[in-house]
Automatic annotation (TrEMBL):
Residues 1-21 are annotated as: Disordered. InterPro entries: NIR_SIR_4Fe-4S (IPR051329), NiRdtase/SiRdtase_haem-b_fer (IPR005117), Nit/Sulf_reduc_fer-like_dom_sf (IPR036136), NO2/SO3_Rdtase_4Fe4S_dom (IPR006067), NO2/SO3_Rdtase_4Fe4S_sf (IPR045854). Residues 65-125, 358-413 form the Nitrite/Sulfite reductase ferredoxin-like domain. GO terms for molecular function: 4 iron, 4 sulfur cluster binding; heme binding; metal ion binding; oxidoreductase activity. Residues 133-287, 426-563 form the Nitrite/sulphite reductase 4Fe-4S domain. It holds the Pfam family NIR_SIR. This is Hydrogen sulfide:ferredoxin oxidoreductase. Keywords: 4Fe-4S, Heme, Iron, Iron-sulfur, Metal-binding, Oxidoreductase. It comes from Allochromatium vinosum (Chromatium vinosum).
Length: 576
């Protein structure tokens, strides 16, 4: 049976063998699913019986269509998988892919009968949809700048590889009370927001210099959002899997409730309290300590081989700044370079953000033509790699600084040059009611309206850094409750409405946003957002961001603005 390798790292890697899903037997899963799908289409398998089988392979039924979710290991794609994704989008789906906030890719509209063939074609390039849905560890998000950023203390990619291999073969996968999400990073900047995960892992060193993990548990952004709490400040690296195993055992034993919405790990931690939950985990761990799942140095070294950079004469590991541009370069290029180009820890190179946020296109959506051109850039400009970010953008990971201008010209031609990384128009939105059965609001339509309201790029830059996120429902797929301005869809008297939240923050100092009260019709939301921004601009101090101003002023002045806007809005009689 063919074994499907993970894509290799983009850096100058050693010639170590690529890591493989050795125990998974991925192709056998696909063959079995092909038979199950045919039985369903023939009427020999009921919808009820087929549902858990399709969800196991990431296949959802949506409003009058389907959606297939594909995992992207470590959020990293090389040119060959990018071209394969483009072909699948063109031949099997509705002509686009959607980038999610968890480093996965979604196809909308594939015929159910075609999905096994799609899975086989994805497997040929190291991609899979296996366990991207259902009640298990759905995926592990990793710092999109892992191995690249100047503020990194320890590269999390080998540990992500170990965890990903482990989760795919774990006997509890698919059998947990509810879905379980993990994030991992090893930098000073938390680019995956560990506090929003069921399980957050931060690489740290103790006072003796030993490597280990700070462990957070109980985060989640859906119904009843909560931030994760520190379970322990340090778990020595050999015990990583046994500690997680202990957490999963407690969760599997005590987490299930009659109401599935109350069966997340965050609900169990709240019911037991952190102290009791910790005691139960430690009790379980006492039986697992130094057992078969204890990691060895050889295992870690093997996992790290694909990420070891071969020594070269020009390798210089030092935090750098992007060199000053040469005179007479176009102002549009200078703006893009200032906003979308970041320093790389390797001298002479830069990290480039490709923005999917452009007026007239849905945030996170890419056409086959764009995917194919991104594959070209990955191959020629970025050591054959591009990475997905939690903000529905992509980054080219190692661009030579003397190639930035030529790259910008090409990026501009394909509409991925928006100089808005971290600004208001770099907004995040889920597919919403256009596709999702659970959504109450049209997230993508509202995103387009807000982008149109703030189409003046100079105005957006004057506003400064501002994180705006739109979710179509309480499930928070766009992480609206971590946004400086969050918007969520709801149903009120049979009508789609939108509630505005304020004061959230992602990252190391994560904070949940606070609802401001009234709800709005879709066409009222852009002006309500404009009112919040106008208040900020009137009261901001020199250099003060929107987030900082909200913390200084408090939510009440902003609540007043929103309440006045709601009172001034025309009141319509609900439909019968």
């Amino acid at each position: 049976m063919a074994r499907i390798p993970h894509p290799r790292d983009e850096s100058r890697v050693s010639h170590a063998p690529e890591r493989r899903h050795e125990p998974l037997r991925l192709l056998e899963h696909i063959t079995r699913f092909r038979d199950q799908t045919q039985a369903y289409l023939n009427g020999d398998l009921s919808e009820e019986a087929f549902r858990p089988l399709r969800l196991l392979h990431g296949l959802y039924r949506l409003r009058e269509t389907t959606m297939l979710r594909v995992a992207v290991p470590q959020g990293r794609l090389s040119s060959e998988p990018l071209r394969r994704l483009a072909r699948i989008a063109r031949e099997y789906a509705l002509g686009e892919v959607h980038l999610t906030t968890r480093q996965t890719i979604q196809f909308t509209g594939p015929a159910i009968g075609a999905v096994p063939q799609i899975l086989a074609e994805l497997a040929e390039v190291g991609l899979s949809s296996f366990l991207t849905s259902g009640n298990g560890i759905r995926g592990i998000v990793v710092d999109p700048l892992a191995g690249l950023a100047a503020d990194e203390l320890e590269d999390p990619r080998p540990w992500h590889a170990i965890l990903d291999q482990w989760r795919l073969t774990h006997p509890l996968m698919g059998q947990l009370p509810r879905k379980f999400k993990i994030g991992i990073h090893g930098a000073r900047t938390d680019r995956v927001t560990l506090a929003a995960q069921d399980l957050g892992l931060e690489l740290v060193r103790d006072a003796r210099g030993e490597l280990g993990f700070r462990v957070l548990v109980g985060g989640g952004l859906g119904r009843g959002p909560r931030l994760a709490q520190e379970l322990t400040p340090f778990v020595h690296w050999p015990h990583l899997l046994t500690w997680i195993e202990a957490i999963l055992r407690v969760y599997a034993r005590d987490g299930r409730q009659p109401d599935p919405y109350k069966s997340r790990l965050k609900n169990l931690v709240q019911r037991l309290g952190l102290v009791e939950f910790r005691a139960q985990v430690e009790s379980e761990w006492a039986h697992l300590r130094d057992g078969p799942a204890t990691l060895t140095k050889a295992q870690v070294e093997r996992a790290a081989r694909p990420f070891v950079e071969a020594p070269t004469d020009d390798t210089v590991f030092a935090a750098t700044t992007v060199p000053a541009p040469a005179p007479n370069e176009p102002p549009e290029y200078l703006l893009w370079r200032h906003q979308n180009v970041q320093p790389h820890k390797r001298a002479g190179h830069a990290i480039v953000t490709l923005s999917t946020k452009r007026l007239g296109t849905a945030p996170g959506n890419l056409s086959p033509e764009q995917l194919e051109r991104i594959a070209d850039w990955a191959a020629t400009e970025s050591r054959d790699a591009v990475r997905l970010t939690p903000n529905q953008n992509l980054v080219l990971t190692q661009v030579r600084e003397d190639r930035l201008f030529a790259l910008w010209e090409d990026v501009r031609a394909f509409g991925l040059d928006g100089p808005n990384r971290g600004l208001l128009t770099d907004l995040v939105a889920c597919p919403g009611a256009r596709e999702c059965d659970l959504a109450h609001g049209d997230s993508l339509g509202l995103a387009a309206a807000i982008q149109a309201r703030f189409a003046d790029a100079d105005d957006v830059r004057d506003i400064g850094p501002l994180d705006l996120r739109i979710s179509g429902c309480v499930n928070a797929c766009a992480h609206h409750n971590l946004a400086a301005i969050g918007i969520r869809g709801l149903r009120k008297q049979g009508e789609s409405r939108y509630q505005i939240l304020i004061g959230g923050r992602s990252g190391r100092e994560a904070r949940l946003a606070e609802p401001l009260g009234p709800s709005f019709a879709a066409d009222e939301v852009p002006e309500a957002v404009a009112g919040l921004i106008a208040l900020y601009r009137r009261h901001r101090q020199t250099g003060e961001t929107f987030d900082a101003a909200v913390q200084r002023l408090g939510a009440e002045p902003f609540r007043t603005i929103v309440t006045r806007a709601a009172d001034a809005a025309p009141q319509e009689t609900p439909h019968d």
